[in-house]
Specification:
The chain is built from 6 helices and 12 strands. The protein has 225 residues and is an alpha/beta fold.
């Protein structure tokens, strides 16, 4: 899905975008207050992000996995000339197993208390569909049934080459810091393209933000009995 063709969009200065969230207030209302809430933040530790959950008894965990994701993205099927169908399928299976092992090491054992909420920021855009499917299948193993994933998705067919620095401004809005000069690549997902990537995970609601990002609330309904 990701293209090696880059285009540059020069900006006069680094830009700080403050985006009104269409989903965060309602998402906060879904979190339980009768027990401790487990939140997994897949970005760097930010005091402001933690402050947004001040009303809750909280277990808040930050796993900044951006470097590991860069290695995972670079793991590809090597070109080896003409292969038979059986040979190619065998190599693809081996590649999937290597990716799965990397994801297992990245996410570790499922937590004792399953996650009620996962903050994925713009991360999903930077994983090709087969890798994103493996990542989500592993991620939901640590999630509460009924748990949510908050994600920001580029759905325009192109997106920045690097993830932006995104964080909560408050429980109603997001801050996104854009570099002074941004490179763009082909990529992103539509809500339709996210379907079927992980059993039991559905797009509960989506809102288009003013900068073109889709803000998504995904719900994990569990696996069928």
């Amino acid at each position: 899905m990701l293209s090696s063709q880059l285009s540059r969009l020069p900006l006069a200065t680094a830009e700080i975008q403050q985006l009104r969230s269409g989903l965060l207030p309602a998402l906060m209302k879904t979190l339980p207050r009768e027990r401790r809430v487990a939140v997994l933040d897949l970005g760097p530790a930010r005091q402001g992000n933690l402050d947004c959950f001040a009303p809750f008894a909280l277990r808040y965990t930050c796993w900044d996995i951006s470097e590991e994701l860069a290695v995972l993205r670079a793991l590809r099927l090597p070109g080896a000339g003409r292969l038979s169908r059986a040979e190619r399928e065998a190599r693809e299976a081996e590649l999937a197993e290597r990716r799965r092992a990397m994801i297992d090491a990245m996410l570790g054992e499922p937590p004792a208390q399953p996650w009620d909420l996962v903050l994925a920021w713009e991360l999903f855009n930077y994983l090709e569909r087969p890798v994103l499917s493996l990542f989500l299948q592993r991620l939901v193993q640590g999630m509460q049934k009924g748990g949510r994933i908050h994600a920001l998705i580029w759905g325009q067919g192109h997106m920045p080459a690097k993830m932006a620095d995104v964080r909560f401004a408050d429980p109603h809005s997001l801050i996104r810091q854009v570099p002074a000069e941004e490179e763009f690549i082909d990529g992103g997902y539509s809500q339709y393209q996210l379907r079927g990537l992980c059993e039991g995970l559905v797009v509960h609601k989506g809102v288009l933000l003013r900068n073109g990002l889709q803000e998504l609330n995904l719900s994990y309904r569990g696996r069928p009995e």
